[in-house]
From TrEMBL:
<dbReference type="InterPro" id="IPR020471">
    <property type="entry name" value="AKR"/>
</dbReference>
<dbReference type="GO" id="GO:0016491">
    <property type="term" value="F:oxidoreductase activity"/>
</dbReference>
<dbReference type="InterPro" id="IPR023210">
    <property type="entry name" value="NADP_OxRdtase_dom"/>
</dbReference>
<protein>
    <submittedName>
        <fullName>Predicted oxidoreductase</fullName>
    </submittedName>
</protein>
<dbReference type="GO" id="GO:0005829">
    <property type="term" value="C:cytosol"/>
</dbReference>
<dbReference type="Pfam" id="PF00248">
    <property type="entry name" value="Aldo_ket_red"/>
</dbReference>
<keyword id="KW-0560">Oxidoreductase</keyword>
<feature type="domain" description="NADP-dependent oxidoreductase">
    <location>
        <begin position="14"/>
        <end position="311"/>
    </location>
</feature>
<dbReference type="InterPro" id="IPR036812">
    <property type="entry name" value="NAD(P)_OxRdtase_dom_sf"/>
</dbReference>
<dbReference type="InterPro" id="IPR050523">
    <property type="entry name" value="AKR_Detox_Biosynth"/>
</dbReference>
Amino acid sequence: MKRKIGNSGIEVAPLAFGGNVFGWTADEATSFSLLDRFVDAGMDLIDTADVYSRWAPGHAGGESESVIGKWLKRGGKRHRVIIATKVGMDMGEGRKGLRPDYIRQAVEASLRRLQTDYIDLYQAHADDPDTPLEDTLGAFADLVTQGKVRVIGASNYTAERLRQAADISRRDGHPSYQSLQPHYNLVERADFEAKLAPVCAAQGIGVIPYYSLASGFLTGKYRSQQDLGKSVRGQGVAKYLDARGMRILAALDEVGRRADATPAQVALAWLMAQPTITAPIASATSVAQLEQLIGAARLQLTQEDLDLLGEASAVAD
Protein backbone atom coordinates (compact mmCIF):
# COMPACT_ATOMS: atom_id res chain seq x y z
CA MET A 1 0.00 0.00 0.00
CA LYS A 2 2.85 2.42 0.78
CA ARG A 3 4.70 4.24 -1.97
CA LYS A 4 8.15 5.82 -2.05
CA ILE A 5 8.53 9.56 -2.46
CA GLY A 6 10.63 9.55 -5.61
CA ASN A 7 13.92 7.74 -5.14
CA SER A 8 14.08 8.60 -1.44
CA GLY A 9 13.82 6.12 1.38
CA ILE A 10 10.61 7.72 2.62
CA GLU A 11 7.45 5.67 2.11
CA VAL A 12 3.94 7.04 2.55
CA ALA A 13 0.35 5.88 2.37
CA PRO A 14 -1.34 6.85 -0.95
CA LEU A 15 -3.34 9.83 0.39
CA ALA A 16 -1.98 13.15 1.66
CA PHE A 17 -3.94 15.38 4.03
CA GLY A 18 -4.03 18.96 2.79
CA GLY A 19 -3.22 21.09 5.81
CA ASN A 20 -4.42 24.40 4.36
CA VAL A 21 -7.60 24.04 6.46
CA PHE A 22 -5.85 23.80 9.85
CA GLY A 23 -6.40 26.96 11.88
CA TRP A 24 -8.60 28.37 9.12
CA THR A 25 -11.80 26.47 8.17
CA ALA A 26 -10.98 23.82 10.78
CA ASP A 27 -10.36 25.24 14.26
CA GLU A 28 -7.71 23.78 16.52
CA ALA A 29 -9.92 21.20 18.22
CA THR A 30 -11.36 20.01 14.89
CA SER A 31 -7.89 19.89 13.37
CA PHE A 32 -6.64 17.69 16.22
CA SER A 33 -9.57 15.30 15.71
CA LEU A 34 -8.91 15.17 11.96
CA LEU A 35 -5.20 14.50 12.41
CA ASP A 36 -5.85 11.80 15.02
CA ARG A 37 -8.31 10.01 12.75
CA PHE A 38 -6.05 10.33 9.70
CA VAL A 39 -3.14 8.67 11.49
CA ASP A 40 -5.30 6.06 13.22
CA ALA A 41 -6.54 5.02 9.75
CA GLY A 42 -2.98 4.23 8.69
CA MET A 43 -2.36 7.42 6.73
CA ASP A 44 0.78 9.47 7.38
CA LEU A 45 1.57 12.24 4.85
CA ILE A 46 0.53 15.69 6.09
CA ASP A 47 1.12 18.52 3.63
CA THR A 48 1.25 22.16 4.69
CA ALA A 49 3.14 25.38 3.91
CA ASP A 50 4.47 28.37 5.80
CA VAL A 51 2.02 30.66 3.97
CA TYR A 52 -1.12 28.74 5.12
CA SER A 53 -3.44 30.59 5.85
CA ARG A 54 -2.15 34.10 5.22
CA TRP A 55 -5.07 34.79 2.82
CA ALA A 56 -7.62 34.72 5.65
CA PRO A 57 -8.51 38.05 7.30
CA GLY A 58 -6.38 38.63 10.37
CA HIS A 59 -3.97 35.81 9.55
CA ALA A 60 -0.25 36.30 9.03
CA GLY A 61 0.73 32.85 7.71
CA GLY A 62 2.06 29.99 9.78
CA GLU A 63 -1.33 29.15 11.28
CA SER A 64 -1.45 25.65 9.79
CA GLU A 65 2.10 24.77 10.85
CA SER A 66 1.38 26.04 14.36
CA VAL A 67 -1.70 23.82 14.72
CA ILE A 68 0.25 20.79 13.47
CA GLY A 69 3.05 21.64 15.90
CA LYS A 70 0.66 21.75 18.87
CA TRP A 71 -0.85 18.44 17.77
CA LEU A 72 2.58 16.85 17.48
CA LYS A 73 3.56 18.14 20.92
CA ARG A 74 0.34 16.93 22.49
CA GLY A 75 0.05 13.53 20.83
CA GLY A 76 3.58 12.24 20.63
CA LYS A 77 2.97 11.00 17.08
CA ARG A 78 5.95 12.59 15.32
CA HIS A 79 7.40 9.18 14.47
CA ARG A 80 4.13 8.11 12.82
CA VAL A 81 3.81 10.98 10.33
CA ILE A 82 5.63 12.44 7.36
CA ILE A 83 5.52 16.22 7.57
CA ALA A 84 5.76 18.08 4.27
CA THR A 85 5.90 21.86 4.24
CA LYS A 86 6.91 24.55 1.77
CA VAL A 87 8.85 27.78 1.40
CA GLY A 88 8.77 30.56 -1.15
CA MET A 89 5.32 32.18 -1.26
CA ASP A 90 4.95 35.78 -0.16
CA MET A 91 4.84 36.03 3.64
CA GLY A 92 4.92 39.85 3.61
CA GLU A 93 7.67 42.30 4.43
CA GLY A 94 9.87 40.98 1.63
CA ARG A 95 9.82 37.42 2.93
CA LYS A 96 9.45 35.34 -0.20
CA GLY A 97 11.38 33.52 -2.89
CA LEU A 98 14.14 30.93 -2.79
CA ARG A 99 17.28 32.89 -1.97
CA PRO A 100 19.62 30.92 0.31
CA ASP A 101 19.48 33.49 3.12
CA TYR A 102 15.67 33.47 3.04
CA ILE A 103 15.46 29.67 2.94
CA ARG A 104 17.69 29.51 6.04
CA GLN A 105 15.43 32.00 7.83
CA ALA A 106 12.17 30.37 6.70
CA VAL A 107 13.12 26.81 7.66
CA GLU A 108 13.91 27.91 11.23
CA ALA A 109 10.51 29.60 11.48
CA SER A 110 8.76 26.48 10.16
CA LEU A 111 10.65 24.21 12.57
CA ARG A 112 9.64 26.45 15.49
CA ARG A 113 5.98 26.44 14.50
CA LEU A 114 5.96 22.70 13.85
CA GLN A 115 7.75 22.09 17.18
CA THR A 116 10.06 19.55 15.56
CA ASP A 117 13.75 19.44 14.79
CA TYR A 118 13.38 18.11 11.24
CA ILE A 119 11.08 18.34 8.23
CA ASP A 120 10.58 15.16 6.23
CA LEU A 121 9.83 16.82 2.88
CA TYR A 122 10.74 20.48 2.35
CA GLN A 123 9.37 21.90 -0.88
CA ALA A 124 9.99 24.95 -3.02
CA HIS A 125 6.41 26.27 -3.15
CA ALA A 126 6.92 28.06 -6.46
CA ASP A 127 9.84 28.59 -8.79
CA ASP A 128 11.87 31.75 -8.16
CA PRO A 129 13.17 33.01 -11.51
CA ASP A 130 15.22 35.70 -9.75
CA THR A 131 17.39 33.17 -7.89
CA PRO A 132 19.72 30.77 -9.73
CA LEU A 133 18.70 27.13 -9.27
CA GLU A 134 22.26 26.42 -8.17
CA ASP A 135 21.84 28.76 -5.18
CA THR A 136 18.47 27.33 -4.14
CA LEU A 137 19.59 23.70 -4.44
CA GLY A 138 22.81 24.48 -2.58
CA ALA A 139 20.83 25.97 0.31
CA PHE A 140 18.54 22.92 0.40
CA ALA A 141 21.63 20.67 0.35
CA ASP A 142 22.97 22.43 3.45
CA LEU A 143 19.70 21.80 5.29
CA VAL A 144 19.87 18.09 4.42
CA THR A 145 23.49 17.94 5.62
CA GLN A 146 22.47 19.64 8.87
CA GLY A 147 19.68 17.10 9.43
CA LYS A 148 16.97 19.77 9.39
CA VAL A 149 15.43 18.35 6.20
CA ARG A 150 15.31 14.74 4.99
CA VAL A 151 14.15 15.15 1.38
CA ILE A 152 13.42 18.10 -0.91
CA GLY A 153 10.63 18.64 -3.42
CA ALA A 154 9.21 21.23 -5.79
CA SER A 155 5.78 22.68 -6.48
CA ASN A 156 4.52 24.69 -9.45
CA TYR A 157 7.66 24.17 -11.54
CA THR A 158 7.58 23.95 -15.33
CA ALA A 159 8.90 20.81 -16.97
CA GLU A 160 11.94 22.67 -18.27
CA ARG A 161 12.90 24.09 -14.87
CA LEU A 162 12.32 20.73 -13.19
CA ARG A 163 14.63 19.09 -15.72
CA GLN A 164 17.24 21.81 -15.23
CA ALA A 165 17.09 21.38 -11.45
CA ALA A 166 17.70 17.63 -11.80
CA ASP A 167 20.68 18.24 -14.07
CA ILE A 168 22.20 20.80 -11.67
CA SER A 169 21.75 18.50 -8.66
CA ARG A 170 23.56 15.71 -10.51
CA ARG A 171 26.32 18.00 -11.70
CA ASP A 172 26.94 19.61 -8.32
CA GLY A 173 26.39 16.51 -6.19
CA HIS A 174 23.40 18.01 -4.39
CA PRO A 175 20.25 16.24 -3.24
CA SER A 176 17.65 16.48 -6.00
CA TYR A 177 13.93 17.18 -5.96
CA GLN A 178 12.22 13.89 -5.13
CA SER A 179 8.65 15.13 -5.49
CA LEU A 180 6.56 17.53 -7.51
CA GLN A 181 3.26 19.11 -6.54
CA PRO A 182 1.35 19.95 -9.73
CA HIS A 183 -2.25 20.91 -10.45
CA TYR A 184 -3.63 17.58 -11.68
CA ASN A 185 -6.98 15.82 -11.58
CA LEU A 186 -9.57 14.25 -13.89
CA VAL A 187 -10.59 17.59 -15.38
CA GLU A 188 -7.10 19.16 -15.41
CA ARG A 189 -5.03 16.60 -17.31
CA ALA A 190 -3.46 18.23 -20.35
CA ASP A 191 -0.57 20.24 -18.92
CA PHE A 192 0.67 17.65 -16.46
CA GLU A 193 0.37 14.63 -18.73
CA ALA A 194 1.92 16.25 -21.80
CA LYS A 195 4.78 18.12 -20.18
CA LEU A 196 5.49 17.26 -16.56
CA ALA A 197 4.70 13.54 -16.38
CA PRO A 198 7.48 12.54 -18.81
CA VAL A 199 10.07 14.46 -16.77
CA CYS A 200 8.83 12.97 -13.50
CA ALA A 201 8.92 9.46 -14.97
CA ALA A 202 12.42 9.92 -16.42
CA GLN A 203 13.85 11.43 -13.23
CA GLY A 204 12.01 9.14 -10.78
CA ILE A 205 10.19 12.10 -9.21
CA GLY A 206 7.11 11.24 -7.13
CA VAL A 207 3.98 13.27 -7.82
CA ILE A 208 1.76 14.70 -5.07
CA PRO A 209 -1.06 16.49 -6.93
CA TYR A 210 -3.03 19.36 -5.43
CA TYR A 211 -6.63 20.36 -6.28
CA SER A 212 -7.19 16.60 -6.59
CA LEU A 213 -10.96 17.11 -6.50
CA ALA A 214 -10.95 20.22 -8.72
CA SER A 215 -12.12 22.57 -5.95
CA GLY A 216 -15.00 20.24 -5.17
CA PHE A 217 -16.28 19.73 -8.72
CA LEU A 218 -15.31 16.04 -8.71
CA THR A 219 -17.37 15.40 -5.59
CA GLY A 220 -20.46 15.77 -7.77
CA LYS A 221 -21.71 18.64 -5.67
CA TYR A 222 -21.91 21.06 -8.60
CA ARG A 223 -23.95 19.89 -11.58
CA SER A 224 -25.67 23.08 -12.76
CA GLN A 225 -25.31 26.86 -12.62
CA GLN A 226 -27.78 26.85 -9.71
CA ASP A 227 -25.42 24.65 -7.68
CA LEU A 228 -22.60 27.20 -7.82
CA GLY A 229 -24.08 29.11 -4.90
CA LYS A 230 -23.70 26.12 -2.58
CA SER A 231 -20.31 27.27 -1.30
CA VAL A 232 -17.74 30.03 -1.55
CA ARG A 233 -15.77 27.84 -3.96
CA GLY A 234 -18.70 27.45 -6.33
CA GLN A 235 -17.75 30.14 -8.83
CA GLY A 236 -14.32 28.57 -9.18
CA VAL A 237 -15.80 25.44 -10.75
CA ALA A 238 -18.12 27.20 -13.22
CA LYS A 239 -15.56 26.58 -16.00
CA TYR A 240 -16.05 22.81 -15.61
CA LEU A 241 -19.80 22.91 -16.28
CA ASP A 242 -19.43 22.03 -19.96
CA ALA A 243 -20.05 18.87 -22.00
CA ARG A 244 -16.75 17.33 -20.98
CA GLY A 245 -17.36 18.09 -17.31
CA MET A 246 -20.79 16.45 -17.49
CA ARG A 247 -19.27 13.37 -19.16
CA ILE A 248 -16.75 13.10 -16.34
CA LEU A 249 -19.45 13.36 -13.66
CA ALA A 250 -21.52 10.72 -15.44
CA ALA A 251 -18.51 8.39 -15.55
CA LEU A 252 -17.80 9.00 -11.87
CA ASP A 253 -21.43 8.18 -11.08
CA GLU A 254 -21.33 4.96 -13.11
CA VAL A 255 -18.06 3.73 -11.61
CA GLY A 256 -19.30 4.74 -8.17
CA ARG A 257 -22.43 2.62 -8.58
CA ARG A 258 -20.34 -0.38 -9.61
CA ALA A 259 -17.81 0.06 -6.83
CA ASP A 260 -20.22 1.29 -4.12
CA ALA A 261 -18.18 4.47 -3.83
CA THR A 262 -18.78 8.23 -3.98
CA PRO A 263 -17.64 10.38 -6.93
CA ALA A 264 -14.90 11.89 -4.74
CA GLN A 265 -13.57 8.46 -3.82
CA VAL A 266 -13.55 7.38 -7.45
CA ALA A 267 -11.80 10.59 -8.58
CA LEU A 268 -9.07 10.14 -5.95
CA ALA A 269 -8.70 6.44 -6.73
CA TRP A 270 -8.26 7.32 -10.42
CA LEU A 271 -5.40 9.66 -9.49
CA MET A 272 -3.80 7.02 -7.25
CA ALA A 273 -3.85 4.59 -10.18
CA GLN A 274 -1.95 6.94 -12.55
CA PRO A 275 1.75 6.40 -13.30
CA THR A 276 4.20 8.47 -11.18
CA ILE A 277 1.52 9.42 -8.59
CA THR A 278 2.66 9.02 -5.00
CA ALA A 279 -0.32 10.49 -3.13
CA PRO A 280 -2.96 13.03 -4.12
CA ILE A 281 -3.66 15.81 -1.62
CA ALA A 282 -7.18 16.28 -0.31
CA SER A 283 -8.59 18.31 2.58
CA ALA A 284 -11.46 17.77 4.98
CA THR A 285 -13.04 19.96 7.65
CA SER A 286 -15.03 17.22 9.38
CA VAL A 287 -14.30 13.64 10.39
CA ALA A 288 -17.20 12.49 8.19
CA GLN A 289 -15.57 14.10 5.14
CA LEU A 290 -12.24 12.59 6.10
CA GLU A 291 -13.70 9.10 6.35
CA GLN A 292 -14.83 9.41 2.75
CA LEU A 293 -11.31 10.45 1.64
CA ILE A 294 -9.73 7.57 3.54
CA GLY A 295 -12.12 5.22 1.73
CA ALA A 296 -10.55 6.27 -1.56
CA ALA A 297 -7.21 4.82 -0.46
CA ARG A 298 -8.84 1.42 -0.11
CA LEU A 299 -10.72 1.54 -3.43
CA GLN A 300 -9.31 -0.59 -6.23
CA LEU A 301 -10.64 0.42 -9.63
CA THR A 302 -10.84 -2.17 -12.40
CA GLN A 303 -9.27 -1.63 -15.81
CA GLU A 304 -12.80 -1.18 -17.16
CA ASP A 305 -13.36 1.60 -14.61
CA LEU A 306 -10.08 3.30 -15.52
CA ASP A 307 -10.85 3.07 -19.23
CA LEU A 308 -14.28 4.62 -18.78
CA LEU A 309 -12.89 7.50 -16.71
CA GLY A 310 -9.99 7.98 -19.10
CA GLU A 311 -12.27 8.18 -22.15
CA ALA A 312 -14.75 10.54 -20.45
CA SER A 313 -11.96 12.92 -19.40
CA ALA A 314 -9.85 12.68 -22.55
CA VAL A 315 -8.65 16.07 -23.73
CA ALA A 316 -9.44 16.96 -27.33
CA ASP A 317 -6.36 17.50 -29.51
